[in-house]
Amino acid sequence: MDLHILEHRVRVLSLARRGLWLYTHPLLKLLFLPQRCRCKFFSLTETPEDYTIMLDEEGFKELPPSEFMQVADSTWLVLSVVSNGCAPSGCQATGVTKIARSVIAPLAEHHVSVLMLSTYQTDFILVRERDLPVVILTLAGEFDIYKEENGESIPVPCDDASNGFLKPKSAPSPTLHPVQSPQNRFCILTVAPDTLPAIATMLIDVLFYSHSPPKEPGAGDLDSITFFSFSLIEGYISIVMDAETQKQFPSDLLLTSSSGELWRMVRIGGQPLGFDECGIVAQIAEPLAAVDISAYYISTFNFDHALVPEEGITEVIELLQKRQESSR
Predict the structure, then answer these.
(1) Which of 1, 30, 43, 152 can bridge 231 by disulfide, Cβ–Cβ 3.0-4.6 Å?
(2) What's the distance, Cα to Cα, between the start and end of the chain in Å?
């Protein structure tokens, strides 16, 4: 397998709900007119707490600073695993559990914090720019590593990364965070870019106007959760929405997997997670990979979210709870 370091340099930020009005205009530009700002990596995820945005430097220029915007200190680089010559956005994703053992677990062991963004097409692993030498050294034994430059894939020699950097000692055992499972049933969808205008008014309504009152996350299962994710990355669109929201959209324009399966969510974190903490993704991905359960994974500014097939949610919750109990 090959590991590609994409050209995007990504910023991660949180927008407070009460300040969304200030950003409606630039967000509409990023959503529907990316050619106007040359943004090639844009993802917007609504959660009960806030809106998380991941976007490249060209897109970041569109957002005015304000008291409502909180930006993570680091710049993040985007990694993508390519197998059998399949381009990063050329086929439907198989789920983050497929790269749990080869990417996520080794990075956690070497104290590299990651953010995950699973889309309909592929899985993106975001690492802080300053951690790239450690990432290359850690994964060079498993992957041929390439760096994308001006549309070309340039091999990255491992020796170049080791110059001046020492391989870190293994990290201590990560904290196991509590998990919650809201009752929503989710869909993972895509639309053809040329049909995006046909659902524009519905997207605007869902993202900016159909707000439910924020809910305080509690212990155990949640009745439901506000969650909607839209990604436009290198021309490919991915949408995650619950089944009730999907009813607002014309079914003939939304493309799902051939099985049309629904997904349930596992929400990680009883309190906001820190960007410096490692092993959060591995907490979910490793045990699911061990029993061959697929999962999509979306990191946000405060919490992480895994989506697993609906029929497997009971097994997943039991598996994760047993792991937590055994760690005490």
Answers:
(1) 43
(2) 37
